[in-house]
Amino acid sequence: MTSAITKILIANRGEIACRIIRTAKKMGIGTVAVYSDADVDALHVALADESIHIGPSAASQSYLVPEIIIAAAHMSGADAIHPGYGFLSENPEFAEMCEKQKLTFIGPSAKSMRAMALKGAAKALMIEAGVPVVPGYHGDDQADDVLQKAADAIGYPVLIKAVAGGGGKGMRTVLSAKNFVSSLNAARREGQNSFGNSNVLIEKLIQKPRHIEVQVFGDSFGGAVHLFERDCSLQRRHQKVIEEAPAPGLSMAQRREMGDAAVRAAKAINYCGAGTIEFIVDVANGIENAAFYFMEMNTRLQVEHPVTEMITGTDLVEWQITVANGQALPLTQDQITLKGHAVEVRLYAEDPYNDFLPATGVLETFDIPNMDSTRLESGVMAGDSISIHYDPMIAKLVAYGPTRSAAIANLKTMVTKSAITGLTTNRDFLIACLSHGEFLSGDVDTGFIGRNQDVLIIEHRVNERERALASLAILANREEHSVAAAALSDEPDSPWGYADNFMMNIPSTETLLFKDHDNGDISVFTTHENGAVSLLEGDIEHIATINDYDAGWLSVNLDGHSFSYFAVVHESSVTLVLADKTMTIQRHALRLDSGEDADGPGQIIAPMPGKILQVMVKNGDTVAKGDALLVMEAMKMEQTITAPCGGIICDLSLNVNDQVNDGQILLNITQEDE
Fold first, then answer.
1. Euclidean distance between CA atoms 346 and 298, whole angstroms
2. What are the two backbone dihedrals, phi and then psi, of residue 559, each rounded to the nearest 5 degrees?
3. φ and ψ of 582, to 5 deg
4. What is the dihedral of CA 554, 559, 560, 562, to 10 degrees?
5. Is 81 helix (H, G, I), strand (E, B) or coil?
6. Of 496, 553, 348, 313, whose CA–CA distance to 433 is shortest?
7. Over the Cα atoms of the chain, what is R_g?
């Protein structure tokens, strides 16, 4: 048995670092945070007992450097390292370094990691253990013609997957033989860039799959259990969006069969610690008696572990520390029970209306309600920056209920009552997913989002009712500032001390001007008298009262309907956070950056900071609308930039590996008659 852990260095950042710190403190164990230049003021740094600076903002020069992490552990006197997930969590060389440096690595052995790191070898091992796998090619011969012939023999559609991949990176769907080589090259390139390994495997594509994974745990005495399953089928580009436990529609017999297979997989590699066996389930004919196949094993704690904790009443981080301490698993399989249902959504800084491009900026507002049966996992606060350097996930919002419908209702309430402003997020998209009939019925598969994108992503045009709500926010905000200013004046009770359009014996009136996407400037004429507000836009009038205004939250009655919403008021805009949508309404104001000289359709601008991976054109080339021009990597995602119009390429001076800034002009497309 190893000596008891007394101090843990968390080799990670953000919400998972905060999560580990909470459990360590509960167990009376000291904590050490590490941070890069970008994370000097991060929440995980503030929560830890100690913190150590480890280098520049780029993860490749800080969080991903094993030697720096080991040195920080020794400097702090930590006797254990918890890698969280991502970064070094599945790096067997790092686990070995910890062992050699007499540091307890809170995770599986390097040998177990290596057994599951390469998907082809892992599948061969699973076949030996009696775990079903998807038909495919997992061989070492990586010649183009060998892979092409294998795909032809399996039959299209097929899936190309980087053998060292994860999170959807290095993965391409191929529908026909003619697209195989180009997709192969893209998968290889992404695999090399993300994991330092360009090898791939080929699998038969299950056309209506569900992604169901089983949480497993092993100890150093050969014990292994499962803690039931999670359904992670709601995905976009193989990135999970909504996770839930248990999987809807799965029978107890299927649950036992899948759980037993997962435990066999863990025992086949003498697994010790937290891990996840991921299965793909073919639901083309429904979930009942559906076949399931091993996909891969994640040899670490998963992002979505909170839903498992909520239905089993466990703390999986505490289990990790217990097992790393050389102790047996806290519970036997018979003692692990499933109760109720839990659902989790991942709140991202990304723009659903612009192909989900990651967003950067400052979280002006981060207001998440603290409700019964809900849980917030986050590593940020209002005022924090979401930067290019790390994953754009802001938080995980989790809810529990005695039934699936109750859990979803609790989570939807939590999300709709959340206000996040300052940058673009997927909040509204998550609400649409949680409200969709297919999801509510449990009829989910990995194609759900793509199939329903037209109704899940609807770009909203501001209407007159929403301008009325913006006007009420402006009036309430001004009233608050007027009261504050009057309180500081020589005569705080005098109406002349208020900057609120007060006039003797007549109602207070004001015209508020807004900019509209389709109709230009629009005025809303407001009349405020005896607590009631009239808002007149053209010939449409709304009658309202403002019942309360507190820290941006308004409680109003508009045309007989009482409700609450959130608003951020600026001189040039008002951002509204309503129950189902977030929008920014531009106010009419003198602005030097009003966009009168906006870029033309042929000017290609970087949508965000990133690195150029591929340049497909050169100056003088003629392109058509939709042609691929550049491949750019930003925030761990690869984006292909296409031509918005036809014409001739000019002003291109980019090379592979060039770093570009948000808004930088990349090239121009001129029209042939210019």
1. 19
2. 55, 40
3. -120, 135
4. -20
5. strand
6. 348
7. 28
Q: Is 496 exposed, middle or buried (0-12, 13-18, 19+ CB in 10 A)?
A: exposed
**Burial (Cβ within 10 Å: 0-12, 13-18, ≥19) of residue 11:** buried
For the chain, the first-to-last Cα distance in angstroms comes to 78
Alpha carbons 475 and 472: distance in angstroms, whole number: 5
Residue 96, φ and ψ in degrees, nearest 5: -65, -40
**Which two three-digit tokens encode residue 239?**
């990135």
pTM of the full structure: 0.81
- Find where tokens 């991202």 sit: 348
Q: Which residue matches tokens 């009136």?
A: 509
Neighbouring CB atoms inside 10 A of 85's CB total 18
Other Cβ atoms closer than 10 A to 559? 11
| Nearby residues of 575 by Cβ (< 8 Å), 6 or more positions away | 421, 567, 568, 582, 583, 584, 585
The pLDDT tens digits for 136-189 are: 898 889 999 999 999 999 989 999 999 887 767 899 999 999 999 999 999 999
Q: 495: buried, middle or exposed (CB in 10 Å: 19+, 13-18, 0-12)?
A: exposed
Instruction: Report the distance separating Cα 531 and Cα 475, nearest Å.
Output: 12
DSSP 8-state secondary structure symbol assigned to residue 109: -
| CA dihedral sign of residues 341, 370, 20, 59 | positive
- What does the pLDDT look like over 514-563, one tens digit per residue? 998 777 889 999 998 888 999 999 999 999 999 999 999 999 999 999 99
CA distances from 652 to 634, 635, 674 (A): 20, 23, 18
Any idea which residues carry the catalytic annotation?
300
Closest CA to 619 of 652, 580, 581: 652
Phi, psi of 672 (to 5 degrees): -60, -25
Phi-psi map region of 273: left, alpha, beta (phi>0 left; psi -120 to 50 alpha): left
Tokens in use for 620?
Answer: 């003088």
Copy the structure tokens of residue 179: 């697209």
Number of C-beta neighbours around residue 558 at 10 A: 19
Per-residue confidence at 36, pLDDT binned at 50, 70, 90?
A: very high
Q: pLDDT value at position 491? A: 64
Nearest C-alpha neighbor of 573 from the set 422, 464, 381: 422
